[in-house]
TrEMBL record:
Boundaries of every UvrB interaction domain copy: 98-180
Pfam families (UniProt xref): UvrB_inter (PF17757)
Organism, scientific name: Fusobacterium necrophorum subsp. funduliforme B35
GO molecular function: ATP binding; ATP hydrolysis activity; DNA binding
InterPro entries: P-loop_NTPase, UvrB, UvrB_inter
Coiled coil ranges: 214-241
Alphabetical keyword list: ATP-binding, Coiled coil, Nucleotide-binding
PANTHER family referenced in this protein's UniProt entry, alphabetically: TRANSCRIPTION-REPAIR-COUPLING FACTOR, UVRABC SYSTEM PROTEIN B
GO cellular component entries: excinuclease repair complex
Source organism superkingdom: Bacteria
GO biological process: nucleotide-excision repair
Protein name per its UniProtKB record: UvrB interaction domain-containing protein
Amino acid sequence: MKKIQKYRGEIPYFIQQNCTDILIYVCSSYRNLEEYFSVLKDLFSIPVYALEVREEEESISQRYEIFEFFKRKKKAILLLTLDMFLRKYEAIGAYQVFQVGKEYSLSFLKETLEKYHYRRNYLLEKRGEYSIRGDILDIFPYTDSFPVRIEFFGEEIERISYFEIENQKSFQSMTEYKMYIDNNNAEENLLTFLKIDSKKHKIFFENVELLSYKLEEMILIEEKEEKKKEYRKEFETLYNFGTEIQLQQFHYQELENFRKKNT
């Protein structure tokens, strides 16, 4: 395993310089992740994604974000914390297709949406919600910027369109709409899920001692022995295939020299 010493302030620039394809960087803290992400997003043109533990209702959408990251298969950066690296990801399944003129059972669609973690609400407020009011089915997909309104006549779809949440006005009618859903429960680790090639793609992680401490914390909390073994195995994979970044701190003399040069 290779080791590189860097100051924390250098990291976004180091990441940008080393990103020739897909680059994965495991941060030792949420603070570091947020700071790196902010600098990379504001100063550089390379697509950058950040995965961290969020509110429960947003956790499913993370799978789609990471899937979008992988779909590029080009120059892109993924920042994440250790817990997000060690977790398993469900493979994303097929589309649910809606077509004008075709018949669908509203009760079946309701069961399907709830099976894939959509929550019912009278009026949509955020991704992952759906609403049924009479012959109108509203869905806010995890993968779209706007909610979709599907209007039925009996069981036949009469109209499909996007709509604005604020004023409920429909726009951009379409004859067909495809929506991602999970159609299996197959779980894979992150590197397998993204089909990461350690010879082609770059993986960095910072402060192995701190990450090791966080690993032991996760193992201590976890009740299932099988999960504990999986955590250790994934951490070993990270350690063997990644490059460690040792974050340095400025020493007093270095700060003094810097101050003298700039006064």
